[in-house]
Design goal:
Elements lengths: L2 H7 L6 H35 L3 H17 L1 H10 L1 H18 L6 H29 L2 H29 L9 H17 L7 H8 L1 H10 L7 H9 L4 H8 L8 H32 L4 H28 L2 H19 L5 H28 L6 H11 L3 H17 L2 H8 L2 H12 L8 H11 L3
Helix pairs in contact: 2-6, 2-7, 2-9, 2-13, 3-6, 3-13, 3-18, 4-5, 4-6, 4-12, 4-17, 5-6, 5-10, 6-7, 6-17, 7-14, 7-16, 8-9, 13-16, 13-17, 13-18, 13-19, 13-20, 14-15, 14-16, 15-16, 15-20, 16-17, 18-19
């Protein structure tokens, strides 16, 4: 991209459209947290209804997370079709398959619907981060991405407070929200000729459709990013060019930066994958906590996550990417270990707060790296390779491995301890190999890496 083009696409101030754009994109990260939390909170009830054992749940969760890796295909097309088009497609796909989950009758159907829902939602989340990175001024990029990713944590907090009103414990009286969800589920079941099943978790999934439909209409007001439009005008990407770009992140020019971001994500997901899958099961079945207890712990814990995102956003643009990222990786590894090894109620509150605070900050810093290290013409492709495909291997495999380790090691805490070292390894990788990009425009990042060599 020429110097003149760089000046034209770099925003100099936060105008009304950028504020509106941020609101539109925030729904992607908000629903990512909302959906992840929904699956975790509903896990005991889904297992009971569909006949899934604790050990099998690890394989179910791993298979669902394969949808995250399949979202890589969407990221490839974003460098040809554009960011806006793909963001419209992803919200439609997620709405359809997440709502369909309410009507599944077998574990296979549950896995298929949730895997496809994850495919669309993960692509939407990734595109939202890329769009903010391309549209916002360099001085605000780190903080903007931090705030955007923090809304995934807010989504978890919202679900934590909503779920006790829908996932009712045995003997609890119904309420209007639970009644509405159950009525919708049984009404559709009757229309389709299915046997009636008013399990509370089905109501939770069907109620999620309402805000998603509103989001779809609001997205109509979104424009294509200036950087993508400029690149397409300079060199329109045909199908042959798109196929060439698929492997570009692994070319000698970009290989080292692709590898470092891929390894960082795998170090994070080595722990976050199984911990998200198994904590609610651990809390309700091993510690004997109620759905209200669990929801309250998650709410306050993920309040810490919101704080972690904001702290990381500030430190990223003040101290830099490397020290912020590595410090929070170490804190995350220690906190997740203690969460599963301090079984008191107060311990769960304290270490959930510390765990989510640390991981929120670490994940924010990693997202910033993933969105900065590739040029505009292959940014979505590079992000897809590192964040959605190669970087998710441990997220898919580790829950399955943990499921197999639970019995031999004597429980969930011992199995989690095995993988708690992952983020600490990530910290060492950051300090040794990651570049420092504080304060640079995206074009300056590319010039810096080209001059000094890949990280």
């Amino acid at each position: 991209m020429s110097q003149a083009s760089t000046q034209n696409v770099e925003a100099t101030r936060l105008d009304g459209y950028l504020v509106f754009l941020f609101f539109l994109l925030s729904t992607a990260t908000l629903f990512d947290g909302f959906d992840n939390a929904m699956q975790s909170f509903a896990a005991p009830d889904v297992r009971a209804t569909l006949g899934i054992t604790r050990e099998q749940w690890g394989f179910v969760s791993g298979a669902i997370r394969a949808g995250v890796m399949l979202s890589f295909v969407f990221m490839l097309t974003a460098d040809r079709l554009g960011r806006r088009t793909l963001l419209m497609m992803t919200v439609v796909g997620f709405t359809v398959f997440n709502t369909a989950t309410a009507f599944v009758t077998t574990p296979t159907q549950f896995v298929l619907c949730q895997m496809l829902a994850r495919l669309f939602l993960t692509a939407e989340y990734s595109l939202a981060i890329i769009v903010v990175g391309e549209e916002y001024p360099a001085r605000l990029r780190g903080r903007s991405i931090a705030i955007l990713t923090s809304l995934a944590t807010v989504g978890v907090m919202v679900m934590a407070k909503v779920q006790p009103y829908v996932l009712l414990d045995e003997g609890d009286p119904s309420n209007w929200l639970h009644g509405l969800g159950v009525a919708m589920v049984t009404g559709v079941q009757a229309a389709l000729g299915f046997d009636a099943d008013d399990s509370s978790w089905r109501a939770l999934y069907v109620l999620s459709a309402f805000p998603l439909i509103l989001v779809l209409f609001l997205r109509l007001g979104m424009r294509e990013t200036r950087r993508f439009s400029a690149v397409e005008q300079d060199a329109p990407a045909g199908l042959r060019e798109m196929l060439r770009r698929v492997g570009e992140p692994w070319s000698p020019r970009y290989r080292r930066r692709t590898l470092i971001v891929t390894l960082l994500w795998n170090c994070v997901h080595l722990v976050t994958g199984p911990s998200v899958v198994y904590w609610v099961i651990f809390a309700r079945e091993d510690l004997g906590l109620t759905t209200a207890n669990v929801g309250d712990i998650v709410f306050w814990g993920y309040g810490g996550g919101v704080l972690g995102h904001f702290v990381a956003g500030y430190l990223i643009d003040r101290l830099g990417r490397k020290w912020t990222c590595s410090a929070f990786y170490v804190a995350a590894g220690i906190s997740i270990y203690l969460l599963y090894h301090v079984p008191t109620l107060s311990g769960q509150y304290i270490w959930m707060f510390c765990t989510v605070f640390s991981f929120g900050a670490a994940i924010t810093a990693t997202h910033v790296y993933a969105s900065e290290l590739f040029p505009t013409e292959i940014r979505a492709t590079g992000y897809g390779w590192t964040t959605n495909l190669a970087g998710r291997v441990t997220e898919v495999i580790t829950p399955m491995v943990i499921g197999l380790l639970i019995a031999p090691l004597g429980g969930i805490p011992a199995a989690i301890a095995v993988v708690a070292v992952g983020p600490i390894l990530g910290a060492l990788l950051v300090l040794r190999y990651a570049p420092e990009t504080k304060g640079m425009t995206l074009e300056e990042v590319q010039a810096h890496l080209a001059t000094d060599g890949d990280p």
